């Protein structure tokens, strides 16, 4: 939603209780609230931040402007979870409240250091002429949720980057702390800078160099770069804005992508043997995916279900955006798989045969098998007038197509109304489909291909129809 700058950057303390109540009342009126996905209490949710493990729990913050569905003065909102399925807001926030983050506590990461959680984020600072000075700054969060910001700036804007320099991700590689930061060079090309904590002291960051990951610079900015290690292979997750379509086919305003690499050369510095760039998600919206290597050995990721610069049907209710399910990464036969954590099965409430299922409450999981050499068309969020979200899984030609041109309230149609990806032709396929009121996450072949999307159904659009082909399996009602 377009709101004037004065509104979006109005100091938090200037909003009256009455204004805040009005916003909350409006949010409550939406017919599209999710049941088991994390949404903002009010306002806009964008990137996942500080996804980590600390104090016996998983920690996840989200970027938020709390006063409406717009990108304004951002804060981090804290949630925690024991099972990665249920997330609880604790009331802790990292607010833009000092000279080093005056225009927003922008995205970043977190890692336990000693008995505290170190938050590494971008302080978005602007001067009176609206010139931006992006600062990489830090804060401690203790076990009681007290936040103490560092006084010193950890990384200043280098000479060879523009104002687009943000989203530090801290990670531990062989006992040494490193951080990568997304950047734009003076030729307006996206790249990534690698830093190292001197003596592993998170107050002292030294530049190692520009990380060679086989990028071409066809993007103008790399947002939210994340490096995780899957079976010791470095996997770079990133959001390259403006990436040339000759390099990668994508339809969303900005893609969310990855590369699987063979090794990490910390000296050069380089991600050696980087694959081509690949779409992380083929749906209508998934962005700024954040991942980390959890202490239990899993590689966990979570994505913003939303995109920058897009208006959503929920904007009229003063909120926008949701967090995806938490996914576990693995590599099989050289391919990256993303699949919801095992604990998601806790939400399965009742099981029925898929073929018996016609009417739903739009809160379910389908677990389906589609035989080889069949063109199967399913309609979800269906009504009896031929509307709904059409999913075609064609195992004959090897294609998956998601068409939302007849599904609920239309929006962002400038970017097209269908999305697709390829599959191996002539092979059986499976689909696990999570539907949550206005969210759908589709995992083909247990996460070989993923489609994450919003759908804003009208009253009564909650049916399931098998239009053609064959699909067998189960329907699970999911309990929020
Ligand atoms: C990505 C992003 C980040 C930035 C944050 C601000 O969506 O633009 O690069 O830190 O959002 O909210």
TrEMBL record:
Enables the bacterium to metabolize sucrose as a sole carbon source. One of its GO terms (molecular function) is beta-fructofuranosidase activity. Pathway: Glycan biosynthesis; sucrose metabolism. The lineage of its organism: Bacteria, Bacillati, Bacillota, Bacilli, Lactobacillales. InterPro entries: ConA-like_dom_sf (IPR013320), GH32_Enzymes (IPR051214), Glyco_hydro_32 (IPR001362), Glyco_hydro_32_AS (IPR018053), Glyco_hydro_32_C (IPR013189), Glyco_hydro_32_N (IPR013148), Glyco_hydro_beta-prop_sf (IPR023296), Suc6P_hydrolase (IPR006232). It comes from Streptococcus loxodontisalivarius. SMART domains: Glyco_32. It is found in: Cytoplasm. Its EC number is 3.2.1.26. It holds the Pfam family Glyco_hydro_32N. PANTHER family: BETA-FRUCTOSIDASE (PTHR43101). It catalyses: Hydrolysis of terminal non-reducing beta-D-fructofuranoside residues in beta-D-fructofuranosides. This is Sucrose-6-phosphate hydrolase. Its main location: cytoplasm. Keywords: Carbohydrate metabolism, Cytoplasm, Glycosidase, Hydrolase. Residues 37-340 form the Glycosyl hydrolase family 32 N-terminal domain. Belongs to the glycosyl hydrolase 32 family.
């Amino acid at each position: 939603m377009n709101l004037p700058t004065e509104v979006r950057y109005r100091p938090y303390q200037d909003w009256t209780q009455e204004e805040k109540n009005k916003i909350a009342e409006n949010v409550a009126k939406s017919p599209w609230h999710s049941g088991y996905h994390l949404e903002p209490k009010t306002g806009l949710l964008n990137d996942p931040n500080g996804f980590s493990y600390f104090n016996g729990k998983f920690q996840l913050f989200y970027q938020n402007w709390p006063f409406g569905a717009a990108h304004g003065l951002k804060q981090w909102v804290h949630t925690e979870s024991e099972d990665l399925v249920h997330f609880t807001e604790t009331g802790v926030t990292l607010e833009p409240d000092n000279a080093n983050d005056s225009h927003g506590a922008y995205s970043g990461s977190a890692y336990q250091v000693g008995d505290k959680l170190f938050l590494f984020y971008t302080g978005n600072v602007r001067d009176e002429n609206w010139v931006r000075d992006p600062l990489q700054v830090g804060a401690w969060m203790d076990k009681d949720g007290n936040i103490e910001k560092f006084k010193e700036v950890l990384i200043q804007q280098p000479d060879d980057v523009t104002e687009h320099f943000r989203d530090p991700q801290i990670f531990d590689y062989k006992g040494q702390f490193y951080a990568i930061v997304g950047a734009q060079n003076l030729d307006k090309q996206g790249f990534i800078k690698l830093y190292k904590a001197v003596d592993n002291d998170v107050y002292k960051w030294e530049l190692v160099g520009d990380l060679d990951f086989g990028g071409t610079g066809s993007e103008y900015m790399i947002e939210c770069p994340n490096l995780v290690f899957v079976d010791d292979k470095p996997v770079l997750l990133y959001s390259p804005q403006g990436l040339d379509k000759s390099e990668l086919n994508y339809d969303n305003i900005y893609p969310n992508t990855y590369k699987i690499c063979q090794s990490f050369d910390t000296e050069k510095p380089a991600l050696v043997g980087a694959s081509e760039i690949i779409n992380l998600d083929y749906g209508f919206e998934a962005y700024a995916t954040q991942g980390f290597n959890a202490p239990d050995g899993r590689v966990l990721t979570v994505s913003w279900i939303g995109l920058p610069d897009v208006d959503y049907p929920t904007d009229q209710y003063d909120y926008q955006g949701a967090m995806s399910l938490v996914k576990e990464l693995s590599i099989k036969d050289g391919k990256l798989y993303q699949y919801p954590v095992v604990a998601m099965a806790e939400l399965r409430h009742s099981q029925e045969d898929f073929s018996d299922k016609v009417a739903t409450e739009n809160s379910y999981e389908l677990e389906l098998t589609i035989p080889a050499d069949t063109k199967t068309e399913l309609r979800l969020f269906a009504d009896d007038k031929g509307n709904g979200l059409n999913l075609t899984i064609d195992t004959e030609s090897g294609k998956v197509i998601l068409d939302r041109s007849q599904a609920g309230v239309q929006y962002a149609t400038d970017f097209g109304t269908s999305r697709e990806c390829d599959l191996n032709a002539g092979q059986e396929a499976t689909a696990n489909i999570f539907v949550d009121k206005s969210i759908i996450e589709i995992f083909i072949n247990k996460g070989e291909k993923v489609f994450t999307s919003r759908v804003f159904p009208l009253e009564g659009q909650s049916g399931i129809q098998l239009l053609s082909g064959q699909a067998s399996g189960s329907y699970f009602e999911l309990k929020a």
